[in-house]
Amino acid sequence: MLTYALRRLLGMVPTLLLISVVCFAVIQLQPGSFLDQFREDPRVTPESLQAMTRQLGLDQPLWAQYLNWVRGIVTEGDFGYSFANGRPVGSLIWERLGWTVFLAVLTLLVSWVIAVPLGIYTAIHHHRKRATVLNFLGYISLATPDFLVALLLIALVLNLGGTNVGGLFSPQYIDAPWSGAKVLDLLSHLWIPMIAIGLEGVAGLMRQMRASLLDVLHQDYVRTAHAKGLAARRVLWGHAARNAVNPLISLAGLSLPGLISGTIIASIVLNLPTIGPFLYDALLNKDQFVAMTLLMFSALLLLLGNLLADLALAWADPRVRFD
Amino acid sequence: MHVSRAARFLTLVSLSLLGAAHAAPKKMTGLGALGVTAGKSGGTYTLPLGDSPQSLFYYGVIDNNLGLISQQMFDGLVEFNLATYKIEPALAESWTISEGGKVYTFKLRQGVKWSDGQAFDADDVIFTYKNMIMNPEARAGDPGNFKLGGEAVTIAKVDAMTVRFTLPRPAPAFLLQQRYFIMPQHKLAKYGQENGAKPADINGAWPTNVAEGEVVGTGPFKLANYTAGQKVTLTRNPNYWKVDAAGTKLPYLDKLEFLIIRDPQAQVAQFLAGNLDQLNISGAQFPDLKQKEVAGAPFKVVRSTALFGSPPFVAYNFDAKNPALAKVFSDVRFRRAMQLAVNRERIIDSVYNGLASLPGHGVAPANKAFYVNTTRQLGEFDLAAAGRALDAMGLNRKNAAGIRLLPNGQPLEIDLTYGTDSAVYPPIATILQSDFAKVGVKVNLKGILSSRLLATGQSGDWEMILHAFGDQPDPELRRPIWQPGGSLYYWHRAPQPAKDGDPANTAKMAPWEKEIYDIFNKAAVEPSASARKALYTRWQLLFAQNLPVTPIAKPENIGAVSNKYGNYVYNLGVIPGYNPVPLIYQK
Known about the structure:
The complex is a heterodimer.
Chain A: H1 2-29, H2 36-39, H3 46-55, H4 62-76, E1 81-82, E2 87-88, H5 89-124, H6 129-143, H7 146-159, H8 171-174, H9 180-217, H10 220-227, H11 232-244, H12 246-254, H13 258-261, H14 264-270, H15 275-285, H16 288-316
Helix pairs in contact in A: 1-16, 5-6, 5-9, 6-9, 7-9, 7-14, 9-11, 10-11, 12-16, 14-15, 15-16
Chain B: H1 3-20, E1 26-28, E2 44-49, H2 64-73, E3 78-80, E4 87-89, E5 92-97, E6 103-108, H3 122-133, E7 147-148, E8 151-152, E9 154-159, E10 162-166, H4 174-177, H5 185-188, E11 221-227, E12 231-236, E13 242-244, E14 255-260, H6 264-272, E15 278-281, H7 286-294, E16 299-304, E17 312-316, H8 323-329, H9 332-339, H10 344-351, E18 356-357, H11 383-392, E19 413-419, H12 425-438, E20 442-448, H13 453-459, E21 464-468, H14 479-482, H15 511-525, H16 529-546, E22 550-551, E23 554-555, E24 557-562, E25 565-566, E26 585-586
Parallel strand pairs in B: 1-13, 2-14, 19-20, 19-21
Antiparallel strand pairs in B: 3-4, 5-6, 6-10, 7-8, 9-10, 11-12, 12-14, 15-24, 16-24, 17-21, 17-22, 18-23, 25-26
Helix pairs in contact in B: 9-11, 15-16
């Protein structure tokens, strides 16, 4: 298993390199340059524009810009420089990573905790009225974009006279030290993003769980277990559900890159301090090293997520063997 | 504006003040017309910020969000009177302008302290001008204004509290420009070129993770906290140098908070929820908020006629790639004819909800010093007359679809480039498209990001464009835009010099363009205010008759403010030297 993991990890290097070349090329294909926004300002003289081009290294050929960036990462762990912020990219991302991970993990947990039991319920109560209603609701939440849900919730809160309409804290708590009141304030804000972002995941996962369990319920080993006279509950939880969860493990692995790009619009609408809007800005402004680093980070998460999912599968399913 | 006489008078006034007191705080009086009354100390005021600041060093990045914060933390030598837009003393207590208008001597305000208690003096001013404002490598510097006719302006320290600028030639707008924020030498010395730093190093000062105590200014507030992506908190600068009419220290507020909210709708929601105390809104948002105000919501919606702010215009590319179109576009008869098909009334009513007025020609109607009423030249919306005018210039043949034909037989079909991510450009573009179609001119809409409009304009790759440039108190400050051959005069790029800094190619200008070109050159060095006014009057008339661009409307400024606060004066955003926030108080 260890050699397998190592082999996979090593295999990621060429993949990432290839992805980085593609990302860089795509970013360069975008029209314009970071400096375009300065042209509009009458303060900026052509002389200053030239100076900035030189400062940012934009006067160098593209391949040199790319190679410098890669060299910085390999030799110094330096992910380049944000043109807009005048700071190393690494520390900028680090600043925003905390809340991003917190929100992503929380929404993931919430959606799993709700979706898996619902999926099981709708599978075993297949064709019954309540399951059909739940399925219908699932379809609707799947079809509603997260930012729309966010907007509707904001409008609802406003109309009810509430004040928690975005962000994670009320203004006075944002830079206050942690306290019980601050936690309560966080909780009173948190439910909107949980619903808006989590709901979409719930519907998808629920349907996945349902389909996969329905599949398993008709397998021979389940019928054998029933025939052997095992209690229905043991069969369901010990055999069927355990096996049906496999595809969900792969899904969980694939959901890692969603950390970065999954909730851009909802984050903007809900004013959440996550990385998504930061990536969006970097792409719009052609702040190329920020965009590159985030895209690469996203790609790395996808590869790692896949690996973790495979390892988890091996652990969960005795049929999967790597050696 | 009688610059030298006014300056001499101010010098006398301030000299007498100097005799009376050592520290000379500035008294904020005469603002009754704006509704300013005596306030009381205390309170927190919360404003929106459109995005995280990119840095905390004003001259290191060009960033409107940083500008909003900086304008509360730093001051310049001079500032605007909030009511009249006239230049008043700020960090400079007085100044003299030599006969001939070439030597400006600024006497600095006595007793001003930085927010960390250090004394402010001439060294700070010189340090800031040399390393930031006049430094071409500083991203938000303004070196262009310190090279006049190819020669550099020099700056020198006369004594600890006196600074002197020597200009190679007279420049009447020079005083108006000296609203640049002055930065503390004692905190930034290591970025100074005199201490061995490279000119570009200054851009790296005060990144967003700098310790709060490092960011030191003379402004009404100082930095207290920045939480990445969420909030910037400023607290009162106890050393601020302004007092109100009764002598109470300003600012009134204890704290000024900026919540970082990117989405304009989310800003409105936060304002309605009471988490923001003030918000600038657009004409489209006005009816909803006004309705809520009338229904008893705890805020006021305030309209004010604006000097600053960007009036949109339509421009035709005189150098369009299609030579037949270029020929038509550079024909003034075409631009005048098409102006008759621009339905300004409808645009003002439906796009701006009536919260806009007719535009001036390069000068805002609210600008008492320079504006000339050219409303008559805007013409009335009259499609029949537009059609007749197009017929008269020989565009009278039409194809089966009713589109006029160019002399070479091609249909008169124009691509209109406009910004899609704006509340006003898309509806204006559609109105123009539908009205132009009625006079047989087919318009194809070509949407791009608003932030790319200028770059597209300057690239020359467009036919007709919808764009906006801001008004300024003095036309000299917008010379690159309105002087033919200027770097932003992009609708006719042929007269632009081949190399930056060279004189414009006057041979490529139409006679009226040549006249405007000369007017700007003359007015730039003309010391007499009345002579300048006469020159710019002639320019506005030439503009109105020849329409280098067709101005559409001048939007009003609308702000909403919570009833908990007094002394609200509309504030467009980043206008260095125009800051009413120190006067705001919590009732």
